[in-house]
Amino acid sequence: MSRSESLAEYLRAQARRRLDRVESRDEGRNARCALALLDAAAYAAALPDDDPLILMLDQAGCFGPLGCEEFDPGEAGTALIRHWQGGEPHDLLLALPAAIAAATS
């Protein structure tokens, strides 16, 4: 599996997680988040593995120390993804390395 596909699969899993959540008075927040994550997953799946965004995520350690493991953004990256409310997919991917770096500093 390519790094882009691994990233897309992770984002799709997080979208499914949001769709499965049942909260009273969420006013559609989980559905909006899930749609935003599915949009980001589609965007990520179309990126080549040498795209600068994928390389930034690799440098941030999201694909393991050797860059060949499944996508895992760590706790800080997961928190950012789980609370993503929408926006441009590349904005989410750009925000991940900074969130990861801030958590490890």
From TrEMBL:
Source superkingdom: Bacteria
Official protein name in the record: Uncharacterized protein
Species name: Nonomuraea salmonea
Lineage: Bacteria, Bacillati, Actinomycetota, Actinomycetes, Streptosporangiales
